[in-house]
Amino acid sequence: MNERVESGLRSVQRGVLWNAGLAAVKLVAGVVGSTYALIADAVESMADVFTSAIVYQGLRVSARAPDEEYPFGYGKAEALAAAVVSLMLLGAAVGISVQAVREIRTPHLAPAPWTLLVLVAVILVKLVLSRQVRVVGAEIGSTAVRAEAWHHLSDAVTSAAAFVGISIAVVASELSPDTHWESADDWAALVASLVIAYNGVTILRTASRELMDRVPGQDVVETIRGAAERVPGVLATEKIAVRKAGLVFRVTLHVQASPHLSLHDAHVLGGKVKGAIRAAEPRVDAVLVHLEPFEREAPESE
């Protein structure tokens, strides 16, 4: 558990450093190069710094051990951090779209061609970061870290949209100076805001499902069921409930066994079931086994 948290924290820390540096570069380039699409991209990167800090803190809190005040642990802090990230993405999308509309309606200078080089570098860095963080998020099973990867990818998308818009504005202004294509990069910023909003909704949906204790997936449930039923002495299983709490799963299930087992033997069997489930699915942190006497269904009368 601690190793998985540390891995997630390191990936978030790298993202904070890169986002801070890229935001500064894009903001300066956007102001000097007269392109709002790049400024909007810088604003999104600045938001990334704050959301990364939220993800970082969410991971740290979720790793705390259960105590008297929170007997089921602090795992939900991780999903809550992802939900906050999604809301910040939606807020950034609204802000960028409003300002983009204003820029479209206001005459301004065409973007400087050299800003395209800045965007190419930004896109490459963000794609690499997104892939690295996504791999870490999948390995440790973190909703918040996966949200962070989506955030990096959305930044790459907004930069790509800005690249297209600025390219149109630059080329059109060179070929036809009187056609007023200066707002092309503002339209690109508007399109990018829609992509950011879509990512925000996607992340919010995933986080809310986890906060509502939705089943993490039938593959996880079947792995747990199979591990329990392979334990000698287990005759049937039912009422398997699995919920995700941060980076781990918590499981409750009913196990049917021989009604002739002593209380001691039933306790031992329950321990074997817990061990088998944890061995089959290492992400399981806690297992509650309710033992019941096995009763065969009565044959139907002819």
* Order of strands across the main sheet: 1-2-3
Rg from Cα: 26 Å
- Quickly count the domains: 2
What share of the residues lie within helices? 55-70%
Distance between the termini: 56 Å
The CATH superfamily of the largest domain bears the name Cation efflux protein transmembrane domain
Count of helix runs: 8
Order of helices and strands: HHHHHHHEEHE
Structural class: mainly alpha
Q: Which segments are poorly predicted (pLDDT under 50) over 5 or more consecutive residues?
A: 298-302
Task: Report the top-level CATH class of the largest domain.
Answer: Mainly Alpha
How many strands? 3
Global shape: elongated
Q: Major β-sheet, in short?
A: 3 strands, mixed
Quaternary form: single chain
- How big a fraction of the residues is strand? 5-15%
What does this structure look like?
Residues 298-302 have low confidence and may be disordered. This protein has helices at 2-32, 36-62, 76-105, 115-140, 143-175, 184-211, 218-229, 263-280, and strands at 236-245, 248-257, 284-293. Strands 1-2-3 form a three-stranded mixed beta sheet. It folds into two domains: 2-211, Alpha-lytic protease prodomain-like (Up-down Bundle), CATH 1.20.1510.10; 218-293, 2-Layer Sandwich (Alpha-Beta Plaits). The protein has 302 residues and is mainly alpha-helical. It contains eight helices and three strands; from the N terminus they run αααααααββαβ. The protein is elongated, with a radius of gyration of 26 Å.
